[in-house]
Amino acid sequence: MSEHRCFVYGDNINTDLIFAGKYTYTLRTPEEIASHALEDLDPTFAQTVQQGDVIVAGRNWGSGSSREQGVTSLKWSGVNIIIAESFSGLYFRNCINQGVHPIVCAGLSEKVKRGDTIRIEGGYIIHDGEYYAIPPLSPSVQAILDAGGLAPMLAKRFANE
Is the residue at 28 inside a domain? Predict the structure, then answer.
C-alpha cells in the first residue's frame, strides 16, 4: 500500500504547459529541468512537490510535442505516477520509457482535489472510500517500469550478457 498527495489539473494539458519549450536546449541538469516543471500552469508546483506525489488530470494529458522533458521534469521533481482520464499516445510511451507509471483512470479527476491523498493498493486507486481499478499493463511494459525505464532495463540486460 502506498499513499500519495495529489496535484490536480484539467483537460488538454500539453507538453508546453508541463515543460516550456523555451528551456529545451538551455537547461541540462535534472535539478534545473525539475525547477521549471509546470511553471506556466502552476507556478508553485516546483517549490511544493515532494517525492511520491502524483499528478491527477483530465483528458488528453501530454498532448503536443514529443519532448522527453515533459516527463523527465516531473520525474525529477519526485512524481513517479501520473493518473489521467486519457493520455496523448506519445506522452504515455515517454512515461513508460522514463519509468513513470501512466495510469488511465476514468472519474478520479472529477472527485479528487489538490492536496487530497489517494492510496494505491491491490490494483486499485482508493480515494474517499471509492475504488478505481488500475488497468493492467502488459508484462513487457511492466518490466520496463520495474527497471526504472527503458534505458536502465536495456543497460541491465546487456550488462548480463
Answer: yes
> Across-strand partners of 3?
119
* 1-to-8, 64, 110, 126, 145 alpha-carbon distances in Å: 21, 34, 23, 10, 18
User: What does the radius of gyration of the chain's CA atoms come to, in whole angstroms?
Assistant: 15
| Dist. CA 72–CA 70, nearest whole Å | 6
Q: Name the one residue in this structure whose C-alpha cell is 493498493.
A: 121
Domain CATH number, residue 99: 3.20.19.10
The pLDDT tens digits for 35-94 are: 999 999 999 999 999 999 999 999 999 999 888 999 999 999 999 999 999 999 999 999
**C-alpha distances in Å from residue 51, one per residue of 7, 54, 135:** 12, 9, 24
